[in-house]
Amino acid sequence: MTFLEPLTLTGRHVILEPLAEEHHDGLLEAAMDGELWKLWYTSVPAPGAMAAEIRRRLALQEQGSMLPFTTRLIDAGTGSPGRIIGMTTYMNIDAATPRVEIGSTWNAASTQGTGTNPDSKLLLLRHAFEVLGCPAVEFRTHWLNHQSREAIARLGAKQDGVLRSHSRTSDGNLRDTVVFSILDHEWPAVRAGLEYRLYRRGLGA
Q1: Per-residue pLDDT tens over the stretch 153-166
Q2: Cα 138 to Cα 90: distance, rounded to the nearest angstrom
Q3: What is the residue-wise DSSP string for 2-32?
């Protein structure tokens, strides 16, 4: 058994299930909701590149450095899995520490601000801290992606620093990467904050 094997995580609003090639059409539809591949500050596959992105993530899973998920809505009426809305991953997996990064995440534009993202993060963080025993979980984003930086900070993550000229974007420009993390002793407060956000969402707040 490896440190991380494919699994399904079920929350209040979303189900995270192991990424599979048959999710292609649903993921394509989700990416077209908002034409997310046109956003310069994030990396969402264009319609013609979705199949290659799925294969890339599954190849990294085989290598043991990524565990990719497909994100589905939970049907409010039946409680069963609904439509596909995006992708997320455990990445840069370090089994020895153990430590993971949560990243390569995107959701359909129509679902943003509906509670799907905090629910997804709660599932991934809970599993990382309470099942895998990680002493820390990491998040990274583009310095110029202010929306992502604010969302990560709202989770309760602390900014560790900035890796300047850290990597190149798909258009060849150098990217400064902001690194955040949550430590295991901070997790109870972060969990309480996420659970409260989901509780308020359930009340329509």
Answers
A1: 999 999 999 999 88
A2: 10
A3: -SS----EE-SSEEEEE--GGGHHHHHHHHH
